[in-house]
Amino acid sequence: MSALRVQLRVQEVEVAVVLAILAALLAAVVISAVVFGERTQAELRRKAREREDTEPDYYEIACLAGGPWRVADTAIGLLAEQGRIRVSRGSTLHRVSGMAPAEHPVERRAFTMLRRREENRTAYKIRQALAESDEAAEVKLRLADRGLLILDSLPTETLRRCNSALAVVRVLAPLGVVATGITMLVTGTPQAMMPGLVGFVACWVVALAARTLYATDPYTRSSREGRRHLKKALRRRTYDSDTDAIAMPLALHGLGKISDPVLFAELTAPPPRPAKSYGGHRSDAGSWSGGSDSSGTSTVGAGCGGGCGGGCGGGD
After folding, report:
1. Quick one: pLDDT band at residue 293, thresholds 50, 70, 90?
2. In which band, very low, low, confident or very high, does the pLDDT at 33 lie, cut at 50, 70 and 90?
3. Is 28 left (phi over 0), alpha (psi -120 to 50) or beta?
4. Claim: this prediction has a pTM higher than 0.90
5. Gap between the Cα atoms of 270 and 117, Å rounded
6. Please, how many CA atoms are within 13 Å of residue 268, restricted to the half-sphere of its CB?
7. Which ranges in the chain belong to alpha helices (H)?
8. Angle, vertex CA 202, rays to CA 198 and CA 208, nearest 5
9. Whether the Cβ atoms of residue 60 and residue 52 lie closer than 8 Å to each other
10. Does the first or last residue of the chain, that is N or C, have fewer Cβ atoms within 10 Å of its Cβ?
11. Taken in order 70, 76, 80, 81, is the CA torsion positive or negative?
């Protein structure tokens, strides 16, 4: 009888040792992920401190909040709200003459696009071209140079691996807790299993707490310092100029902050559907009709004229 007890005791010790080793391995994964993640973030913070002389402007905040498309939307929304561009029926954009010249490169690029005599100058097409422009890319490069945006493959890959490792721990650690708990109930020796249980619980808690520490936005890949600036901008309630008061909400929240609902509908209208081959002709608004097209346009803000022409997309 005593030999059987000794054998059971040995088996219990072996199980306890195995669980403790598994918990230690998970702890090693957690520690490695935290060390490499913190090292990467420290390098990004160092770059940010070296260029801490200025706060991000509203185009840089737009890029942190929503990427190049948000930069384009901020420019178009700001120019429209200031009356420097107007929108005719069919969401076609026009530059208003006699206004002050554009100061920011992104705005100058938008005006250059509107000066061209192209057939398709719809808000969607201009926003798309502006988002893909060199000027929008330059905003990203400035943020990366300040350590607020992650463009280099190495930091991005390192942080992605840290997140993946912590995600695995978040799955395995609770399984370890359950397995250890069941073993404690079956064997009736909680003291021997306690090191493994504590290890699994600690790994689980740390992995859960670190869920967002090394996260990078899948679209903009903003760093921790970049997210800090973004949160600071979200808390801001007063602005130094009327331009900032218009542009910053657009940068943070997109075209949904356009004050005029008709203007919002035109600027966010989806692209025209491809032309069909049945009889009829295409109207200036980009829709098909069998009869004659009604001419004339109206500046959005005073009214839509012929209506918005279908459903309107939401703000970014």
Report:
1. very low
2. confident
3. alpha
4. no
5. 22
6. 20
7. 2-50, 58-81, 105-115, 123-131, 134-145, 153-187, 190-209, 224-235, 242-253, 261-267
8. 150
9. no
10. N
11. positive
Residue type, 26: L
Q: Which residue has the higher pLDDT, 47 or 295?
A: 47
**What's the token pair of residue 141?**
């490069």
Query: What pLDDT, on a 0 to 100 scale, did the predictor assign at position 309?
Result: 32
- Residue whose token pair is 């490499």: 36
Residue 63 and residue 140: Cα distance in Å, rounded? 7
Q: Is 221 within 8 Å of 151 (Cβ atoms)?
A: yes
Region 44-52 average pLDDT? 64
Spatial distance between the Cα atoms of 34 and 86, rounded to a whole number of angstroms: 51
Q: Is the pLDDT of residue 144 over 60?
A: yes
Residue holding tokens 């509107």? 114
Better pLDDT: 146 or 304: 146
Q: What whole-number distance in Å separates Cα of residue 134 and Cα of residue 110?
A: 12
Alpha carbon 249 to its chain's center? 16
Using alpha carbons, select from 257, 256, 246, 274 the residue that is nearest to residue 312.
256
Helix 123-131 with 58-81: angle, nearest 10 deg: 160
Question: What is the average pLDDT across 242-249?
Answer: 90
Residues 136-151: what's their mean pLDDT?
83
Nearest-angstrom CA–CA distance, 227 and 39: 18
Partnered with residue 85 across adjacent β-strands are 95
Are the C-beta atoms of 237 and 252 separated by less than 8 Å? no
Q: What angle do CA 50, 56, 59 make, to 5 degrees?
A: 140
What's the rounded mean pLDDT across residues 229-258?
A: 89
CB 65 within 8 A of CB 255: no
Q: How far apart are CA 296 and CA 88, in angstroms?
A: 9
Where do the H-state alpha helices sit in 51-152? 58-81, 105-115, 123-131, 134-145
